[in-house]
Amino acid sequence: MDLEGTYTFQASPTMVWHALEEALTSQRYLPGLERLDKTHENGYAFTLRLKHNPLQGVYTAQVNIIEQQFPSYCRLHITQDGQNNTMSGEGIIHFNQSETSTVVTYKGHLSLDTGDTQTPTTLTKGAAKLIIQQLFGGLADQLRAQQRQEPAIIEQAGGKIIILPATQEQPVQLASSPLTTLARLLVERSGLGAHDPVKQERWVLRVRRLSIISGLLLLVWLGTRLPRR
Fold it and tell me: Is this structure's pTM higher than 0.70?
């Protein structure tokens, strides 16, 4: 049967490519994947247990990446690896960037042999596409979770705006000022943040806050030492 379809991710092609690699190697997001063994650099043997009719059963096969161009496309070839409930075929996956999103387009041919009576192609194709959509849906959820954890840095004339994850500090703007410049110089020379721009800006923010608090405490202390009239 011939399969083709698309899925749109709100992420760059590079992020989608790596997420797909991670999903396959960690056996996540692909429903029913029970075994995935690396046979060589670009080849895997797998066991897949499907619960959707009319594809219900346990399938064994090998998949090889026979051509790839990161992060634009990859071509796959699936060969039988057993006698009962096997699958074979080939296909190509394209990662097309569209502004801030990536449109994944897949197209190929897949043959399934369950050893039973031939099932209608329409039902088989529908079940196969449902499994593919479940895989992409899991990847999309993972990418959204990763993006919520990654701070964003926005450069502007007055300084930098650091958008931190919701689970960390609230968004702040570090505009240029003598105190900010001094704090940044102290952070850079002391090696705080391990030369990571985001971590360094967090340390700059902490040093600024500490300096302001220290200055206020100093003023209070001086106020208690001044002679009363």
Answer: no
